[in-house]
Structure formats: structure tokens, C-alpha cells
């Protein structure tokens, strides 16, 4: 005879238990509220306080308070307790909802397997403050290390108030798509809080990091704006001599390399014409620097290869090998010579523009920007150039490079590190600041107190500028990597997903048979954050990859949500209005002599 199935009995027991639990959840607080409400009603009517009997108060209130009328008992032990219980329930639901939202980043799902506060302790306030004391002699005896002196704010650990900061020995790469918070949540807050000199490269002015920080940084020190293409329509209140660091062959090669990188992608920089054009430009830059000539003289020499002036200068400075190379090119086959010189002319073509050239040639009554003085100040340098600026962006990259090299030299003179550190925000680096060996510089800049944050729109954008090997080197050398929303490269998203890793997921399966219900539990591994989830990262969040730590999910902190946002917004509006005013005045039609006479 078959055994009766017990599955229905088991399910009945589960249902009965849940029903009993629900009754208790309601009955226990309601009985206590009835006892409390009855006693309060009795006291208000001059009666005595009844003994502690909540069950009796709920079921037979007339036994505890016989002197109360039916209406008083109804209100005190029935209506009031039910209303109070409903109010408390609603309040508990609201508080739970807020707690859930706060702990999961609003409507963002909390991701299992990501770093918790204990996993990234070196990026927390206490650790960064202690590290700052050891890195910066000026803070060694300070009673309290301010947060801004400890490191650069990256955001809050998701769902918490724990601030995550990169220290002033870290170097960072941020890959964030447009309108994902790269400027509002990373560049601007970093600039505003920087304790030392700041360098910013950008291809925008109005409503961007330039206008948002200009007023605040003016109070911190002097602001320098190099705007050769008039993005901000800034007055030419400075000039910089790019030949100051080109008095050696290595320095001249670096300067020529900036013109090459601004004009040719990494994949094309190794061909004959590119290398030959860069070499001839380097030799002419060296001659101009040694003879203390303006850089614009190089364009004259490029226009007339037969001009022997650069040859004579190189020989006068005993650089006969370099002079021989230049002579060999000049006296070589005409078609080859003309091709090399034309290539060099294209690289340096921006110097033909008088408005651009004025920023890099001596100017009367205009102060000279000196990188060596800048790195020991609390000044700010804004380097602005349009996308695809060619030679103009080469000057921007050269100036940024000169600042970082001057900072390295100063750090060596100061015992190894800059104090306070130099913050270099290389926003739109792949467009306006193509420093060819930036990946190599990343290996030692942080140890010198030079903190670069290179901001790119995509990984492939970096590969286009520095090549696969160069971008991989920069990625590997970066101690902090910030990945924002808008990652649409499937290969890169999958790479990130694999770096984040897997976690164990518990799977429960239930089976039914004649003998009843059985449950089995097994474990399997799955990606913590699959590629499609990385692509769908909501705006306002970012992934933080720190060396030797689990990957953390961050809630970004845009500047316009901070306590001083109103003041910054007003200052930004004033700066934007000033740009507009200068632009209108610059492009206003000029009056003719007849109009003036009339």
C-alpha cells in the first residue's frame, strides 16, 4: 500500500507558522498599546493605574477599568491603539525605505562582492591622513591633517559616508564618457581642494573647470591662462618660452616630439617622413634655443632650407655632429629634402599664426611664465586648446611637460618630493595634451609629489595616442583607476569584469517526491559585475581600481551638491559672462571712419 504524501502536511505547517507569526507581530504591540491607552484614559478621568495585563487590556478591558464607560474604553483601548500602531508601522516603513536607499545608493542595486570599507582602508580618511604626515614634512607636527591635505577626493564608498581618497603619492587614470561626471565630480573638486600648484589642460572654458575654479584659485595664488586659440578669449597676460628647455639635444628632441605627437597618431610616428621631419625640426629648435632666438625663427629657416644660420649656430656651440646631420639633409636630393622640410613645416604650422605665436615669444610689459617658479607656488596654470589643435595643442603639451619636468627637478633639490604636491589634471589629454612618454613618466611622478590625473573618454582613445603598449603601460603604472559610466567598448568592459573577479553564489533547489519535499544547496561562481552591468553603470557612480585592493563602487560627489555650491555657481556664472562679453567685443563689427565722423 503506498505511503501517504507528506508534502501537503509540510506546506500546511509552514503556512500555519507564518500566520501565527503575523498574528503575534500585530497582537503583541496592539495589546501593549491597549494597556497603555486604557491606563492613560483612566488617569485622565481620575481612575487608578491598572496592573500589567496587556492581554486582558486587549480582550476584556472592562475587567481592568470597570469605572470607565463604553465610549472611553472604545477610544482608549481600541481606536487610539490601532491608530498609533498604523502610524508606527508607516513610520517604520518610511525609515526602512530610506535605509535601503542609502545603503544601496538610492535606486541602485547593491552589488555583492564589491569592496567594503575594511577592504580599502588605505584609501580611508585615517590612513590617508597618516600617510600624508609621512610624505609631507610640513604636516609632520600638525595637530590635525585637513582632508584636502591628505589626498584627492574620488567619491564616497557606495551607500556610505566613507570618503575614498587617493593619496599624494598616487597617479591616476580616469576613463569616463562625456557627461559622466569627469569634470564636475573629479576635476573641479580636485582643483578646488588642491593644497599646492595646479595644472589643468582642457578644451572648454565656459561652464567648465576653468570658470568653476578661476575665482577660488585666484584666492589661493596667481592664475595663469594660456589660451592661444582663444577658447576663453583670455587676455594675453603671460608668455612662455618653449625653447628654455631646448638648449640640449634631448630637450630639443622632446619639444619636437610634442609637435609630432600633436600631428600624427602613434601608429604613424615611426615612418620615414615623420621621423625625418621631427629630426630636422629638433635640430632647428636646438639652434634657435642656443642663440636665444624666438621660436618663430624656426619657421623662417624651414621656409628657406638654404639659410646657413642654424648650421653656423650649431658649429659655434661645438655641436658639429648635429650640424653635419642638418647639412646632410639640406644638401641631399632635392625631392627628399623638400619632403622632409614640408613635413616639418606641417608639424609647426601653428607658429605661422601670429595670435598663437604671441603666447610663446617675448612680449613687452607681459610677465613670463617660468615653470621653475610655478612649481614652488600655489598658483594655477590653465592650458586651453581646441580638439585637433595641431601645433597649438603641441604647445599646450610642451608647456605641461615643462611644468612636470621642472617639478621633478625641484623635488630632487628638495630631498625627493614636492611639498605641497603639484596636481596635474590632464583633462581631454588625448586631444590637447599628447605627451608621448607620459606612460613612462607615470612610473615615477607619484614618488616625486607630482600627482597626474589623466582623464580619457575611452581606453581606445588612449591607444590611439600612445599605442597599445603605451596605453597598457600607463594603465599598469596607475595606482588608481577610475571608471565611470558610458563604457561602450565590449572588450574593455569584459577586461574590467575579469579584473573585478567572481564570487560564490548559493543556489537552492527543491524537489518533491512520494516521501516528501527535499532541499539541496550548491555553490557556483559568477561574475561580480558582468560586462553588460559595467556598460550600464548609472551616472553618478564609478568603479575604483586601487593597487592591491578589491574594486570599490563609488558614489561620485559633484561640486554643485557641496555646501559651498551657491558661491561657486555665482563665481562660475560671472566668469562665463566675462567670456561672453570678451567674445562679443572681439567679434563686434568695427566702425568705419565715415561712421565715426557721422
From TrEMBL:
<keyword id="KW-0472">Membrane</keyword>
<dbReference type="InterPro" id="IPR027417">
    <property type="entry name" value="P-loop_NTPase"/>
</dbReference>
<dbReference type="InterPro" id="IPR051539">
    <property type="entry name" value="T4SS-coupling_protein"/>
</dbReference>
<protein>
    <recommendedName>
        <fullName>TraD/TraG TraM recognition site domain-containing protein</fullName>
    </recommendedName>
</protein>
<feature type="compositionally biased region" description="Low complexity">
    <location>
        <begin position="507"/>
        <end position="522"/>
    </location>
</feature>
<feature type="transmembrane region" description="Helical">
    <location>
        <begin position="15"/>
        <end position="35"/>
    </location>
</feature>
<dbReference type="GO" id="GO:0005886">
    <property type="term" value="C:plasma membrane"/>
</dbReference>
<keyword id="KW-1133">Transmembrane helix</keyword>
<dbReference type="InterPro" id="IPR032689">
    <property type="entry name" value="TraG-D_C"/>
</dbReference>
<feature type="region of interest" description="Disordered">
    <location>
        <begin position="504"/>
        <end position="523"/>
    </location>
</feature>
<feature type="domain" description="TraD/TraG TraM recognition site">
    <location>
        <begin position="421"/>
        <end position="539"/>
    </location>
</feature>
<keyword id="KW-0812">Transmembrane</keyword>
<dbReference type="Pfam" id="PF12696">
    <property type="entry name" value="TraG-D_C"/>
</dbReference>
<keyword id="KW-1003">Cell membrane</keyword>
<feature type="transmembrane region" description="Helical">
    <location>
        <begin position="72"/>
        <end position="96"/>
    </location>
</feature>
Amino acid at each position: 500500500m503506498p505511503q501517504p504524501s507528506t508534502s501537503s502536511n509540510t506546506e500546511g505547517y509552514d503556512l500555519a507558522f507564518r500566520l501565527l507569526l503575523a498574528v503575534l507581530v500585530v497582537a503583541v504591540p496592539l495589546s501593549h498599546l491597549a494597556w497603555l491607552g486604557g491606563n492613560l484614559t483612566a488617569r485622565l478621568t481620575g481612575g487608578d493605574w491598572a496592573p500589567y495585563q496587556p492581554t486582558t487590556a486587549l480582550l476584556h478591558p472592562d475587567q481592568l477599568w470597570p469605572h470607565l464607560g463604553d465610549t472611553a474604553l472604545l477610544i482608549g483601548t481600541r481606536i487610539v491603539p490601532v491608530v498609533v500602531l498604523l502610524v508606527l508601522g508607516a513610520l517604520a516603513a518610511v525609515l526602512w525605505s530610506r535605509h535601503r536607499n542609502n545603503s544601496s545608493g538610492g535606486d541602485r542595486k547593491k552589488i555583492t562582492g564589491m569592496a567594503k570599507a575594511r577592504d580599502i582602508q588605505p584609501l580611508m580618511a585615517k590612513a590617508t591622513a597618516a600617510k600624508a604626515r609621512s610624505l609631507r614634512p610640513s604636516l609632520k607636527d600638525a595637530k590635525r591633517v585637513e582632508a584636502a591635505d591628505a589626498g584627492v577626493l574620488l567619491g564616497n564608498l557606495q551607500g556610505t559616508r566613507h570618503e575614498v581618497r587617493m593619496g599624494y603619492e598616487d597617479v591616476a587614470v580616469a576613463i569616463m564618457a562625456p557627461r559622466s561626471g569627469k569634470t564636475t565630480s573629479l576635476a573641479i573638486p580636485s582643483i578646488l581642494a588642491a593644497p599646492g600648484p595646479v595644472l589643468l589642460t582642457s578644451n572648454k572654458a565656459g561652464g567648465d573647470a576653468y570658470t568653476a575654479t578661476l575665482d577660488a584659485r585666484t584666492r589661493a595664488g596667481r592664475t595663469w591662462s594660456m589660451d592661444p586659440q582663444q577658447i576663453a578669449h583670455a587676455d594675453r597676460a603671460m608668455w612662455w618660452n618653449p625653447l628654455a628647455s631646448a638648449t640640449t639635444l634631448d630637450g630639443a628632441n622632446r619639444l619636437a616630439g610634442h609637435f609630432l605627437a600633436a600631428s600624427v597618431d602613434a601608429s604613424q610616428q615611426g615612418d620615414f617622413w615623420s621621423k625625418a621631419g621631427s629630426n630636422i625640426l629638433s635640430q632647428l629648435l636646438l639652434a634657435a634655443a642656443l642663440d636665444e632666438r624666438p621660436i618663430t625663427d624656426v619657421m623662417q629657416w624651414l621656409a628657406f632650407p638654404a639659410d646657413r644660420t642654424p648650421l653656423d649656430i650649431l658649429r659655434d656651440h661645438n655641436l658639429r655632429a648635429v650640424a653635419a646631420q642638418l647639412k646632410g639633409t639640406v644638401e641631399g636630393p632635392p625631392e627628399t629634402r623638400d619632403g622632409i622640410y614640408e613635413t616639418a613645416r606641417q608639424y609647426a604650422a601653428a607658429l605661422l599664426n601670429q595670435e598663437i605665436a604671441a603666447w610663446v615669444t617675448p612680449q613687452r610689459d607681459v610677465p613670463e611664465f617660468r615653470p621653475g617658479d610655478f612649481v614652488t607656488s600655489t598658483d594655477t596654470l590653465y592650458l586651453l586648446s581646441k580638439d585637433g589643435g595641431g601645433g597649438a595643442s603641441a604647445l599646450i603639451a610642451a608647456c605641461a611637460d615643462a611644468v612636470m619636468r621642472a617639478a621633478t627637478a625641484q623635488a630632487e633639490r628638495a630631498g625627493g618630493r614636492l611639498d605641497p604636491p603639484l596636481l596635474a589634471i590632464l583633462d581631454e589629454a588625448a586631444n590637447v595634451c599628447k605627451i608621448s612618454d607620459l606612460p613612462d613618466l607615470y612610473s615615477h611622478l607619484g614618488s616625486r609629489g607630482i600627482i597626474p590625473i589623466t582623464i580619457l573618454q575611452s581606453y581606445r582613445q588612449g591607444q590611439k595616442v600612445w599605442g597599445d603598449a603605451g596605453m597598457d603601460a600607463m594603465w599598469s603604472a596607475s595606482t588608481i583607476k577610475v571608471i565611470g559610466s558610458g563604457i561602450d567598448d565590449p572588450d574593455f568592459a569584459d577586461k574590467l569584469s575579469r579584473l573585478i573577479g567572481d564570487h560564490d553564489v548559493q543556489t537552492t533547489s527543491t524537489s518533491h517526491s512520494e516521501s516528501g519535499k527535499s532541499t539541496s544547496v550548491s555553490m557556483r561562481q559568477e561574475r561580480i559585475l558582468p560586462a553588460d552591468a559595467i556598460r550600464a553603470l548609472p551616472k553618478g557612480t564609478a568603479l575604483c581600481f586601487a593597487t592591491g585592493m578589491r574594486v570599490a563602487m563609488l558614489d561620485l560627489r559633484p561640486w554643485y551638491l557641496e555646501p559651498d555650491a551657491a558661491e561657486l555657481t555665482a563665481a562660475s556664472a560671472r566668469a562665463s559672462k566675462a567670456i561672453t562679453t570678451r567674445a562679443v567685443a572681439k567679434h563686434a563689427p568695427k566702425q568705419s571712419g565715415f561712421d565715426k565722423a557721422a
